[in-house]
Every structure is written in C-alpha cells, then in structure tokens.
Design brief:
The chain has helices spanning about 25-40, 75-80, 120-135, 165-175, 195-210, 225-230, 235-240, 260-265, 270-280, 280-345, 345-370, 380-405, 410-415, 460-470; strands at about 45-55, 60-65, 70-75, 90-100, 105-115, 155-160, 180-185, 215-220, 245-250, 265, 420, 440-445, 450-455. It is an alpha/beta fold.
Amino acid sequence: MSRLPFDPSKMTGAPPRGPDEPLSVTALAGRIDAALRSGFPEAVRVVGEVSGFSDRTHWYFSLKDAGAVVPCVMFASAARKAGFTPSHGQQVVARGRVEFYAPSGRVSFVVEKLEPVGEGARELALRKLVEEIRGLGWLSPERKRALPGFPRRIAVITSAGGAALQDVIVTLRKRCPAIGVLVCDVRVQGEKAASEVTAMIRRVGREAKRLRVDAVLVTRGGGSAEDLWAFNDREMARAIVECPVPVVAAIGHETDTSIAELVADERCATPTQAAMRLSPDASALLRELASQGRRLQTVAARRVRDEHERVRELGVDLRRAPAGRLAVLSSRLDQLSVRLARRSPAAWYAQSLQRAAAAERALQRAIGVSLKGRDATPTSQRLQRAMAARVKSMDAAMAASVRTLESVSPLRVLERGYSVTLNAAGAAVRQPGDVRPGETLDTRLASGTIRSIVEGAKLVPLRARRAKDDPNQQGLF
C-alpha cells in the first residue's frame, strides 16, 4: 500500500500524539465544544415541556419529553421579549443554540426565543384579551345592567337546530307562556361563528324597540374548547357591552367560561338556567297575586268599617249639634233675663223695702232696749211720731222713684209692643250692619223669644228714620 503525499496545509502545529497519549480536560472540553458547534452550526428549534422553571434575573428551566431532559437558560434580554411567563408543564417551542460551558462541564440550550405551543398560545391570547377588556371597564360590576322582571320578548341568538334552543323554549313555556321568543339563527362554531353572532347582537340591539325585545340571550350547548372558541372574540364582547338591552350568556357547560360570558350582564351555567333567570314563575306570580288580593280585600273591608263608624259618629254629632247650640243659647237667655230682672225698678224697689223694713225693725229693737223699764214720756212719744213720719215720707219718695223708673224700664217698653234683637253672642243688634246673611238672631218680646235667620239687611236713610221715629220715645239702651 503506497503512502499519501505530504500535505503541509493539514499540519496542526502540534506534534502527533501516540494512540495511548491522554487528553487534558481542557482539550476534551475544547473538542466537545468544537463538535457541538460543527454539529449545530445554526440555531435550532426544540419543542418540549417546561420543567423546574426558575424566574430570577435570567430564566432557568428544563425542556423534557418522555425520553430526555435538556437544561435551558434564557438570559434577561431575551426573556423580556417573550411576552409571557412559562409555567410548569406548559408545552413550548424554544429557539436557540447548543453550548458547552467548560468551567462547569454542562451542555446547555441557550434559548433566544420562546413561544407557547397549541392550546398554550390560545390561553396566552385569551389572558391578554381578558386584561384588555378589564382595563376598559367591561368587567366592572357597576357596568352590568339589571335584568327585566317581566320581559315582553326575549331574543335568543343561537343555532335554530341546536338543543340549547329547545331547552330555552320548553323552560319558558312552562314558567311563563306569555313571554315571546324571537329566534335569531346563527352559526355557533367555526370560522364564521364569531362574526355572525356579533352581527346579530348589533342588529337586535338596533331593532330592540321596534321588536319589543327587552332582553337578549346568547347561548349554545356544550362542546370542546375548539368548538367554544368563537365566543372569545373582542368584537363580540364590544357588541354585548354596547347592546341597549341586557344580555345574558350561557355558553357550553358550567366549567366553561368565555369572554362573552364575562362581559354579559349575567352569566348562566346552562341554557335552561338562563331561561329560568329571564322568566318569572307564572304560577308563583298567580299565588302572590291571589295573596295580595286577599290582603287588599281585608284592608278595604276594615277601611269601609272604619269609615262607616266615622260617618255614624258624625251623624250623631250633627244631630246633637242644634240641640246643644239651642241649650247654650237658652242658658244665655236665662242669664240675660236674670240680669234684666235684677236691674228693673220693681226689683230695686222691693230690695229697698226689704232693707228699710230691716232697718226699722233694728231701730225699734234698739229703742225698746233703751226705754225698757222706763215710763213712756212725751219725749219718747214725739220721737216715735217723728220717726213714723220720716218713714212715711221716705216711702212716698221711693214710690215716686219707682213709678219714674218703671215708665222707662225696658220691660215696660216690651209690654207696649216693642222688642229687642240679640245676636248669637247676646249683644243687641242696633243697625243692619251688625248682622250678616245666614246669621241666627233671637228677638226678645215681653212674653217670649222668636228665633230667626237673616236673609238680608237694608239700611234706612237717616231722614226716613227720624220721620218714622217718635220724638218723645226714649231709647231702650
């Protein structure tokens, strides 16, 4: 076998080693690093599951699958560009370089770019959307509107052939058949589902007043995450928020939560529960109505009884009122009669006679006591005669005074056919202006009283009054 010709370009500068000559650790590390660089001259992409994630200044974690584990490092400058923080067990795609770090003897995968895989990417996008709509205030409880207590019509946005629509209709018929249902047929899964549902929500919102729609129900039955993904749409969320009537969402099963349900005015676990939430129980309403009717009848009957009793009491008071008023006036008249009698000359004369008689008796007793046991003398006889003459003279003067007083006494005037009219307060009526139409008057005569009601008053001119008046007639008061 011939030898190859000598090639100087292939000389490494190091003398050839023998087959048994050992390598230094540094030399081995250099060869490993050279082999890795030549084996992976460009960046590579690796898919695996995140394990042992450590979030410090730099990210340290491992990528693993069923057969192997590769340690990874992602420096801070690259980690800030990732857009998410990986979690344990998450599937990711890492792009980077394979490097050998000689001081520690470790082979590491230096990650330059990291992306979630499949569902992980969707979950990341969903979290970003949730944070966005939260920042817009769409998830605020204060923004949510109250549902109508008794909606006239409910717009149900769903697939016309789906089981969700049948659940809603059956529930509404059982609970409250009076509520109308407007079926809005749309696709509820697939590429066009989000745009169709969004457009229908906006259309119903524009026509809600004309269609007499008081609430909207967006619903569909259960399905996979892929089937329900159409309801995680930003424009659909905006349409729900801007809808002029309250929106209820029931998407999938209770464990499923979509963006549409988060922004809806109320979320329900199932279509049946949503229908129950939107409709009052007619039978319960009828029972409550009957109960309220009975209460109203009881209250009305009690009120009627109370009013009847009040009317009866008012009637009794009304019947008693004239009698009571008459009694008061009669008592007043009696008092006036007593006062008038006390002021008459006859009464005054009688009282004077009584006082004179009493004085005479007292004087006689005094004279009798002083002359007792003495003989009557001419002096005592003259005294008695003088006293008798004095008494007789006083009697004559008093009788003349009585005749004069009786001639002008009001009672004498009444006996001559005149009268005096008194108002309700007992004051004498002197002129027409002292009375008002409808006022009750008492006219005092010599032998009684006449009661009358004023219908009108007429003023007689002064000259006419003077012509009619007797110039010799004196006034009563």
